[in-house]
Amino acid sequence: MNDSLSNILDLLEAKSYVSVGLSAGGNWSVLTSSFDGLKFNAVVKGEAWLKTADMQEGLLLQQGDCFILTRSVSFVMASDLDREPDLASTVFANVSQGVAKYGLSEEFLVIGGKMTIDESLARPLLQDLPTLIHIPADTPGSNSIAWLIDKLAGEIEHPLAGSTSIRSHLLHVLIVEGFRAFLTANQRIGSGWAAALRDPRIDRAMAALHSEPGKQWTLVQLANIAGMSRANFALRFKTLIGTSPMEYLSELRMQLASRALRRGGQAIGDIANALGFSSESAFSARFRQHYGHSPRMHRQASTLL
């Protein structure tokens, strides 16, 4: 049985891709436009300022620091935030051995990439997270993150056979490690699946729902998996997640249904059966109630995008 974070990333169909590194020095500033998916960067050497479009003040990033952007938002990295930034598209136009050279020296090096996700499902799953997740170098678990950063930097600067695959896998692990470090250390998130990760009992129940979304779950079964009384489990689940276990299951089924319909190739009746509905008509009625249109229209709309 997977854990909840793995299940969420699986639901989002998360795939990671390394972009390139940036080596900079002197007085410099780079503006990166908004992007699809999640953005990850790690500082290998030196320090620089980071400021997203929705931040009032900049954040000083130091060697070993990482950050994840969970929203499509433009951002500036710079030695001086008062300097007029150059566009990233211009700076990264000429890349040598996986690294763009920028500025008068090489005091600073950052590497990173992005994690593509199913945008249609991302909003409700990521809404409880801040736009910027900052993972300082001294965060618990930073030793493994530091090793991964060093390994990824080496694969970018000195690519060998298989480097493209290795870099993508390393970046994926780094992003998961970053989420893990942040969610473990951060106590400000009070609700949603991110909060549930801190409670192993609720996490077990969520993992069970994700593993078998078509099962006819009962509150008693889920409470037993959590090792709690039915009343305490129901209260704790709703406090953390914001909905009841059965409401969460219903929402999960609709998310999975949407993904299956947009993928195509599976009959609507088969989707209904896999998700535990007694009939295709029962499934269609619930789907229409949730999305405002029929499963068939949902599938047809996805083919026009």
Provide a descriptive summary of the structure in words.
With 305 residues, this protein is an alpha+beta fold. It folds into two domains: 4-185, Jelly Rolls (Sandwich); 199-303, Homeodomain-like (Arc Repressor Mutant, subunit A), CATH 1.10.10.60. Helices cover 47% and strands 19% of the residues. The chain is built from 13 helices and 13 strands. Strands 1, 2, 4, 7, 10, 11, 12 and 13 form an eight-stranded mixed β-sheet that branches. The chain has a five-stranded mixed β-sheet with strand order 6-5-8-3-9. A hairpin with a 2-residue loop joins strand 10 (95-96) and strand 11 (99-103). It is elongated. 34% of the residues are buried.
Query: What is the highest CATH level, the class of the largest domain?
Result: Mainly Beta
Question: Into how many domains do the coordinates divide?
Answer: 2
Residues in helix, %: 40-55%
Mean pLDDT: 86
The SS-based structural class is alpha+beta
How many E-type strands? 13
Number of helices: 13
- Biggest β-sheet description: 8 strands, mixed
Give the distance, in angstroms, between the N- and C-terminal Cα atoms: 34 Å
Global Rg? 22 Å
List unreliable stretches of 5+ residues: none
What is the CATH homology-level superfamily of the largest domain?
A: Regulatory protein AraC
Query: At the third CATH level, what is the topology name of the largest domain?
Result: Jelly Rolls
Q: Could you spell the SSE succession in H and E letters?
A: HEEEEEEEEEHEEEHEHHHHHHHHHH
Q: Report the principal-axis shape.
A: elongated
CATH architecture of the largest domain: Sandwich
